[in-house]
Amino acid sequence: MRKNRTKEADMKKTAMIIGLSLALGTSSVPLYAGKIQSACLKSDRRVDRATCSCIQQVANAKLSNSDQSLAAKFFKNPQLAQDTRQSDVRSKERFWKRYKEFGELAQMHCG
């Protein structure tokens, strides 16, 4: 039960940070695009700059630099995402849990 409360508090804190970033007008494209934003903009998917910027802001709040590097590769290589998700390697399992939480938050905040 305590673990759920901690996770819920962490999600609320992250949501607050993202909401504050968006409210301060950081949804415009910065001079430097992060790894996730760059991959998003280069992808075959039809996603606008504001959405890619928002996803990067969520990544900054939720993922480490190394997590972002791996996640950015998924845009070009979806099979890598599948292989990572199905991996029995503990570090990849932990990454996937963080990545899944990132995805849920990005969907919630960025549409």
Number of domains: 1
What proportion of the residues is helical, as a percent range? over 70%
Q: What would the average pLDDT be, to the nearest integer?
A: 82
Tell me the radius of gyration. 14 Å
* Contiguous uncertain segments of 5+ residues: 22-31
- What structural class results from the helix and strand content? mainly alpha
End-to-end separation in angstroms reads 30 Å
Tell me how many strands there are: 0
- Sheet-strand content, in percent, reads under 5%
Order of helices and strands: HHHHHH
How large is the count of helical segments? Answer: 6
Could you describe the 3D structure shown?
The protein contains 6 helices and no strands. By secondary structure, the protein is mostly helical. The chain has one domain. The radius of gyration is 14 Å and the shape is globular. This is TrbM protein. It comes from Amylibacter marinus.
Condensed summary:
Helices cover 77% and strands 0% of the residues.
Task: Note the topology.
Blueprint: H1 2-23, H2 35-42, H3 49-62, H4 65-76, H5 78-86, H6 90-110
Helix pairs in contact: 1-3, 2-3, 2-4, 3-6, 4-5
Question: Tags for this entry?
Answer:
77% helix; mainly alpha; 111 residues
